[in-house]
Write a structure and sequence with these properties.
Blueprint: E1 3-7, H1 12-23, E2 27-32, E3 44-47, H2 53-64, E4 70-75, H3 90-111, E5 115-124, H4 137-156, E6 161-166, H5 189-202, E7 206-209
Parallel strand pairs: 1-2, 1-4, 2-3, 4-5, 5-6, 6-7
Length: 210
């Protein structure tokens, strides 16, 4: 039975991934800030805070005690503080970078030791060139940094499959904080999850542009 770890399993895409993988017969470990929001299908749930490296390491230890090695790890956590840069507080800036970039680094660094030699790491990015807009400064900076982080991870871990997933707008609670309306063409979380699982099955890596 293949095994996966989903960081951010209480969010829209993370939740959809847990359900999608379980329906496909996977063992799924879920790490989330809001444990009660993780789908009941998950085999095990543990807490993590993207700004706290200790919680990420503890979650990894919990998973390592229950699985020999993982086939797939996904960083699906994220968050947004939307404001003009001149009004954005340092706390809001840091919270956005922690959720989207620092947490991704910490989770990736910790997860590398959990993956099989031919395992797959996926991190969810964004079309940064399309969202470089007013009040999106912290989020765009974090996602742009994530793209470079993934590139370096790919070069440093050539035996692993590492994918930057770039979805368009997705209909999740994330959009409650976005300073513009959800586009009519927005994808559903289940569509993103299905595309990611298909990408894994095909054995592809690099970028997954949806």
């Amino acid at each position: 039975m293949p095994a996966a770890l989903i960081w951010g399993a209480s969010g829209g895409i993370g939740r959809a991934l847990v359900i999608e993988l379980k329906q496909a017969g996977w063992q799924v470990f879920a790490a989330a800030r809001h444990e009660s929001a993780v789908p009941s299908e998950a085999d095990a749930v543990c807490y993590f805070d993207a700004a706290n490296s200790f919680t990420i390491e503890q979650a990894a230890v919990t998973v390592a005690q229950q699985a020999d090695a993982l086939d797939l790890v996904v960083y699906a956590a994220g968050g947004l503080s939307a404001n003009l840069l001149e009004k954005l507080t340092p706390e809001e800036w840091n919270a956005t970078l922690h959720a989207n970039l620092t947490g991704a680094f910490l989770a990736a660094r910790t997860s590398l030791n959990l993956l099989k030699r031919d395992g797959h790491l996926m991190l969810i990015g964004a079309y940064t060139e399309k969202i470089t807009l007013p009040r999106m400064g912290a989020y765009v900076a974090a996602k742009a940094g994530l793209e470079s982080l993934v590139t370096v991870l790919q070069k440093e871990n050539r035996k692993l499959k590492i994918t930057l997933v770039r979805p368009p707008a997705v209909d999740t609670p994330f959009w409650h904080n976005v300073p513009f309306n959800l586009p009519a063409s927005a994808l559903q979380p289940q569509q993103v999850a299905s595309a990611m699982v298909e990408h894994y099955v095909k054995g592809e890596a690099g970028e997954l542009n949806l």
